[in-house]
Design a protein that fits this description.
Blueprint lengths: L4 E3 L7 E3 L1 H4 L2 H5 L2 H13 L4 H20 L9 H14 L2 H20 L28 H10 L5 H16 L3 H5 L6 E4 L2 E7 L5 E5 L2 H14 L11 E3 L6 E5 L2 H14 L9 H13 L4 H8 L4 H6 L3 H10 L5
Antiparallel strand pairs: 1-2, 3-4, 4-5, 6-7
Length: about 325
């Protein structure tokens, strides 16, 4: 198999993968049809680039384990997959193991349908039990979130951009991938208010009214950057080195993450936050101030209220208050 498998994502300019570098040895040994179906599985059936890369890592971990033991694809049985999952469970968290097993099952199902395998050796394998009632995403309280925003130097366009990026995640509960995919036209007026249009997972468009603070921060950034008329171009741009000048390039998820970490360190915030922190922070603050779980689910664009509940960290504050009642 030659050429390149090209994966396009709005939040990243383009990810190019050379199949020769990612094709496991066991797949190559199984012949051209196995190679074709392996590449086809990732290119054709998984549209989200984050899911694609996570599943690719998952199956390659299994195949590396297989190759270390000299197994061929046709020799793989449920006992082998079960042994791998047992070892993996000792090394990784239960959610990671369950995600990896799901990826492995899906790939083998595809190879069975494609007549590469006679049976799915992962179909009967059970993963570890896991049930979460509260997410593990680090959350900032109201004062910390304000401290972070207030600490940003907004005398230059980069500071205005960074403040707008963080505010958008806080006030709309936006995922970083949806934020990075935004163009200037995705901040738009409707009636007497401004709205933001988010390009969410699965190709879904999600529209959220802009909080008045978010309007203020986005307007200041767009004014300084002179981007109002560049409707079809990226909203959040990368900088040219340390010049504090924006280029035409789109910020990636990684760019946003590194910016968040820099800004948190500069603000003296010791919590190990990431981009998802602001989704959990916004949802928790909304609920503390009288918002309903149903509406939080709608703003966050969650399929299930159970998912939204994982971001509700109001009980964290209750637990801290209660533990201080111990006066020993």
């Amino acid at each position: 198999m030659s050429g390149e498998l090209v994966v396009v994502d709005k939040a990243e300019d383009m990810v190019r993968i050379n199949p020769a570098s990612i094709m496991p040895l066991a797949i190559r040994q199984a012949g051209p049809k196995a190679e074709e179906k392996f590449a086809e599985f990732f290119a054709a059936t998984i549209r989200n680039v984050n899911t694609r890369m996570a599943y690719l890592r998952a199956v390659n971990n299994l195949f590396a384990w297989i190759e270390d033991r000299g197994f061929k694809l046709i020799h793989l049985r449920p006992l082998h997959v079960a042994a791998y999952i047992e070892q993996f469970t000792r090394e990784r968290s239960a959610p990671t193991v369950k995600q990896n097993l799901a990826a492995i099952r899906m790939l083998f199902d595809y190879l069975v349908v494609g007549q590469v395998l006679e049976m799915n050796p992962a179909a009967a394998v059970r993963g570890p039990s896991y049930s979460a009632k509260k997410g593990k995403t680090p959350v900032l309280d109201q004062d910390e979130a304000r401290q972070l925003l207030d600490n940003i130097d907004t005398t230059n366009v980069v500071g205005l951009r960074d403040r707008a990026v963080i505010a958008l995640m806080v006030y709309t509960f936006a995922r970083v991938g949806a934020l990075a995919a935004m163009n200037v036209e995705d901040y738009y007026p409707q009636g007497k208010r401004w709205w933001v249009r988010l390009h969410e997972k699965g190709g879904k468009l999600h529209e959220v009214p802009a909080h008045h603070k978010l309007e203020e921060f986005l307007d200041a950034y767009l004014d300084q950057a002179g981007l109002w008329e560049q409707k079809k171009l990226p909203l959040f741009r990368v900088t040219r080195g340390k010049t504090k000048k924006l280029t035409g390039g789109r910020m990636s998820r990684r760019d946003v993450y590194e910016m968040v970490r820099r800004r948190a360190a500069a603000a003296g915030i010791e919590t190990a936050i990431g981009c998802h922190t602001f989704r959990a922070t916004g949802i928790t603050n909304y609920l503390i101030n009288g918002g309903t779980l149903e509406k939080a689910q709608q703003i966050a664009n969650h399929e299930s209220a159970r998912t939204t509940k994982l971001y509700d960290r109001r009980d964290d504050r209750l637990s801290l208050d209660e533990v201080e009642r111990i006066t020993i």
